[in-house]
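Our example copied in:
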Amino acid sequence: NVTVLPSGINLNLFSPGSKDEARKKLQIDPMKKVILFGGDINRPDKRYHLARKAKEILDLDLPVELLTAKVDHSEMPIFYRAADVLLMTSKHEGSPNMVKEALACNLPVVSVDVGDVKERINGLPGCFICESDNPEEIARALKSSLTYDNRDFNFRNTVLELNEDILIIKQVDIYKQVIDQS
């Protein structure tokens, strides 16, 4: 018998909030479109160069900022709230928490096809999977996401089952079952 439990997220910490307040705190122009890069820019496997290139060729009538965040995990919610989209360009992932945290903060996601991201965002309005690592395709997906009116969609509802408190209880139950079967 195999049971797979995804890693959970803290839904109390990662929650929707005011975009205006977040941008004010981070000193980001409220008129800009903000792409939050999903990863450490210094790690080659996160492929920041793809994000930079996609942003460079992005054809929008508004100014666009590519935001990076090398901060303590507890400070990430303000970055999710300030952004208009999360961009994931990683070469390798399992089930990236950044995607789940972004959705919990009501932020749409554009990603290359990595890990379980396709299953997580498939069919969500303004969320897109890029089938290739082509910066032009990524730029098109970003443009579609940044111009998509998804203000009325609650992305958070798609990750409620990933509440870490609930998953801890499920994990304890699995351990109890294993012990009982021994």
Summary: The beta strands are 33-37, 64-67, 85-88, 109-112, 128-130.
